[in-house]
Write a structure and sequence with these properties.
Blueprint (H helix, E strand, L loop, with lengths): L13 H14 L3 E5 L1 H4 L7 H12 L9 H5 L11 H12 L7 H7 L6 E4 L5 H11 L6 E4 L20 E4 L16 H14 L4 H7 L2 E5 L5 H12 L8 E3 L6 H9 L3 E3 L2 H25 L10 E4 L5 H13 L4 E2 L9 H13 L2 E6 L1 H5 L6 H12 L7 E6 L14 H4 L4 E3 L3 H12 L3
Parallel strand pairs: 1-2, 1-5, 2-4, 3-4, 5-6, 6-7, 8-9, 8-10, 10-11, 11-12
Helix pairs in contact: 1-12, 8-10, 10-11, 14-16
Length: 442
């Protein structure tokens, strides 16, 4: 007999729901951080821009005491040195980069694995170097994309999946060259870059991807209309909500009112926000691990990839599965060794025929197992029959020295031997294989 209690279920506050929704979007890979200069350094009393400005002012013995690079650049006292400024800044950053110690908040932010792609408004390399240190421990390389205000040299991506690779996007250029105005120092540079971004959006694949994501501005404390212009040049859709800006308490009232009008949530404590996000991501990850184990109990339908393999090659199947799922694709393979039977074959048939692609792993182990009928041979027959309606459906991958064209010991079906196979001899081959497999789905 169930008893009725007087205890009411606690209602979650608006703030708790805000963090729940934010964490859920981050977990799904729908959020891109936009990292500003004020978040970067361990020393909260300064920024890299201020340190560079002070160094240049001291070196040239400028007496005007400029507060910004615009003040310095257009001051008559600095006029004869203007053409050297961008070269000087590039040199200073290169010489002092290791002295720019990242803040704990920056390291915390970049350690969130759901943030493989980040945007930085800084022109130094601190965000990139911090990311490299973090992702190196995960066995991943970090690449950089640079918008340098030159249509012929601006970096872009070829497909949506590229933003799932660890990447830093320098939206205001990177100070690694001597070309004047190739990265943002002055207000004029900022306006030119924003204008270029607006023009560039039409043909840029990256701009189109960013426009579909939620943006997490953190440490980007541009005042008033400059912040609006930066946001709009990236978003270009006033009806996208749930962007978040984490700033300070000195933001101008007009900027705050604008952000509220376009449904941007505002927070003032970066550490609190990250702590709230990380605790919720941990809960979501624990839940996913539990669900991940359960998903192998049955064969799912409508997956992106069905992986067919010999049990002796399970380490290759598991590695392939891991890399594909980390890029956001739905995959399945017989992890729990489902026993053969009428229900199994029907489930396998539905799983294969509703998948977007069937990957067949082939190795020398296949030849050693050719004397008896293994479950994967049934999977081949189903996949090859389904291939009649989709010529690109089956993708064979040869592991190690396996060669489907020469090794008769495998006893492969003629239709399988007629398909061009990818070769997986060394670990470096896997990235190229996955790029090829996933580009075929785009």
């Amino acid at each position: 007999m169930g008893l009725i209690t007087n205890r009411k279920k606690r209602t979650r506050t608006d703030e708790e729901r805000f963090y729940d929704n934010l964490a859920e979007q981050i977990f799904k890979g729908n959020v891109i951080p936009v990292i500003g200069d004020s978040l970067v350094l361990e020393n909260e009393d300064t920024t890299i821009a201020k340190a560079l400005l002070e160094a240049i002012t001291t070196d040239y013995e400028i007496s005007c005491n400029p507060e910004t690079f615009s003040d310095l650049y257009y001051d008559k006292e600095f006029e004869e040195y203007r053409t050297n400024l961008y070269e000087d800044i590039s040199g200073l950053i290169e010489a002092n980069q290791e002295n720019f110690k990242p803040s704990a908040v920056l390291q915390d932010l970049l350690s969130i694995k759901q943030f493989p792609f980040v945007i930085t408004t800084s022109v130094d390399y601190t965000v990139e170097e911090t990311m490299k240190e973090i992702w190196l421990k995960r066995g991943k390389e970090v690449k950089s994309l640079i918008f340098c205000n030159d249509p012929k040299k601006n970096d872009d991506i070829k497909s949506d999946t590229e933003i799932k690779h660890p990447t830093v996007y320098y939206i205001f250029g990177k100070a690694n060259n001597n070309r004047e105005h190739s990265f943002v120092l002055t207000e004029e540079d900022l306006l030119l870059f924003c204008k270029s971004h607006l023009i560039n959006m039409e043909g840029s694949h990256l701009s189109k991807v960013i426009a579909k994501k939620y943006l997490l501005f953190i440490g980007v404390n541009y005042s008033d209309w400059l912040m609006r212009f930066l946001w709009y040049s990236m978003r270009n859709d006033l009806y996208i909500s749930s962007d978040v800006l984490i700033g300070n308490r000195q933001m101008e009232i007009s900027l705050l009112n604008f952000l509220k009008r376009v449904s941007i949530k505002i927070q003032n404590n970066p550490k609190k926000v990250l702590d709230e996000i990380k605790s919720r991501l941990k809960e979501l990850e624990d839940r996913e691990i539990e669900d991940e184990e359960k998903k192998f109990d049955t064969v799912p339908q409508h997956s992106d990839f069905f992986i067919s393999y010999s049990r002796r090659d399970i380490q290759y199947a598991a590695e392939l599965y891991k890399e594909l799922t980390e890029r956001g694709y739905k995959c399945w393979y017989d992890k729990k060794n489902i026993s053969i039977g009428e229900d199994w074959e029907l489930a396998i048939r539905k799983g294969i025929c509703t998948a977007r692609k069937c990957i067949i792993l082939l190795s020398e182990n296949i030849a050693n197992e050719s004397q008896s009928h293994h479950p994967y041979r049934t999977e081949w027959d189903i996949a090859l029959a389904h291939r009649a309606s989709d010529i690109d459906f089956v993708s064979p991958i040869c592991i190690g020295d396996a060669d489907i064209y020469k090794d008769e010991g495998m006893k492969l079906p003629y239709d399988l031997k007629a398909i061009n196979a990818r070769q997986w001899k060394k670990s470096d081959d896997l990235k190229e294989i996955i790029d090829s497999l996933t580009s075929a789905l785009s």
